[in-house]
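Field reference: sequence -> structure
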Amino acid sequence: MTKIDLLKIVKQKMSGLPIAQSPPAGGAAGAYGWLHRNSGSWAQTIFGIFIVWLMYAVFNSLFLGLLCFAFFVFIPGREGEEGFEALNNWIFFRLTMILIFILAFINAPLLGIGLDFGAALPWNWEGPTIIFVAIWGISLFAGWGNIESRQSIGVIMVIISFVLFTMGVGTQSVGKAAFGEWWPTVYKFGSNVFGPLVDGLSSFFSTMGRGFELLSNPVGVANRIASGNYVGDPTSSSKGALGVKADRVDSSAIFPYQPFDISIRLKNEGGADAENVEVALEVGEEAPTGGVGTSNVYKALTAGQNLGFDNLTQRAGDPPGHMEKNFVDEVFFRTNEKGLTCEVMNKFQVRSQYIPLSAIVKYDYNIKSSLPLEIVNREEWARRFKEGTDVVQKKVAASLSNAPIKLNIDSPEQPIREGRPIFIGLSIESAQKNGEIESVKIIKVNYPQELKLAKCTLTPTSQGAGELTWENLKGTNVIFCDFTLTDQLTESVQTSLIKAEANFTYKSIKSTVATMEFGGGCCSDAECASGFSCDWKEGQGSSGKCLPGTAGSGSVSSLSAKYLNANMTYCDDLTATGGICDLGEGHCKSDSQCQQVTAYGIKWPDPGQPDQTFKLECRSLSTVPELRALGFNVCCPQGASTDQCIVAYKGWVDGKPWQERNKDLKDAHK
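Structure field:
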């Protein structure tokens, strides 16, 4: 039998099936007919709802969930049906996009993107805010058409948004939900691989931008070039915005309850010796958070209290605090013997989040600049014109020594004709991307004796013969001084030199990413393989081990549906009526929702010792695997263990009074 014969037989058999026949029309069968005609559309919208759930429930991002809802969810129907396009375009897309924009400005952390919009004016926005608004605007414009085109472009916009708010400007919430405990490793790998690529692209586009500006605004480019140029250092031949640089920040392997080191290598690449060189270690932006303090405000991980660093500042150089030109030094920060404890790991979920560390280098530095000043008398000016030689006036750039700032000297276009106004302008600004001027201690300007000072926009602290001095400048980075010639020029062309010098304190930042290493013991059941549990208990002072079955029993994780399905809005409802949650009651959102009057005992006292008591705080029970996805928070004493908090919580659900719940909590002390 040939292939063609087989196809013929299949077609004949399929033609007799109900699915191949036209659906009945009229009466109650009309609904079936409508479903039959739109079965493909129903499949698309159901899949779209699944994607919405995936982004919101699994990836913990309301922003991505709403974005997917706008692009992928619609009411099935046929093109041309009355109200079909208008309903889907307005209700499901445009109003959802407007809702996203409103929520972002009212409460961005609620969307899972953690942006700080600050002021509502665009010129006050930070980079992440501008990126969000750009993504939102492109999505709104691209999805304005019909459903088919909207779904096609939606896939691209959701992927772009996911990448940006996972690897870029967003908080760690999306990445942590997407990659779990592998997220820190993924992020660190991505930073090491794509970081240099991004820097290269940034330099490329910056060069392209300068080229385009040179074509479109040559005068502006010329004025900026005239603002000052760095000159090569005679000893190192280096040239640019150079100072003390932290060119490498490394972390040793981090395991629970083990000390670890942070090493920072510094080099003085500038044109002066640095004084008072100090390095501070801090946890940078995107730090893991845990323990709700107030609504939408979280307590961030700290380098001292949480990571175990007793000393967070060190002096660098030889002798300490002094670094000569081209000197290289390395400083080490070491934790105490405990290092990162299981309590901190579980509270801040450090296993599934990276730790951003920043080395802040602060030092005193010096910069020198000079500008030649050419003045011609009236006779020379007239002679040049009579001889047919045009007097071409142009801005002259100052020469700057290598430093992380620019101390620019400005003057009128030169040559300056005798009798014309003469001014000298000074401006001081940071020239490094990741640095800032903390203070300007002193600025000195030396000018030729032929010039006489008329006035300055900022009165000098002191002045002498041919010298002006300003001390302790705050908030002022531009100074203009007007001068006149003391006498007529004795020569046709007179050239002199304006010199300026500034001593300042500068601060720069270098960041790195530290991650927890796998192994070295466990702190929760989530770190163990399926079928194993962690035997770690709060307060034991060392990490636990993953043991088979329930041998670990490190936490009370066996909660029935009775306890898992308790009222999730109890504390909110109680607060709304003027009440406040007591011991074991849930599910609070902040410490302010918990009773603060009574101090609760957390264990039976030893003979002759007073009972240990603490006030309540809103405690997260996310270390218990069953409760992690539910986000359980319970009012529980600060010093109590997770097991004790769960006992008090179960007592509340069982209807026990607070005194009995407190007794059960103390009985559960191990």
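Note: The two ends are 80 Å apart (CA to CA).
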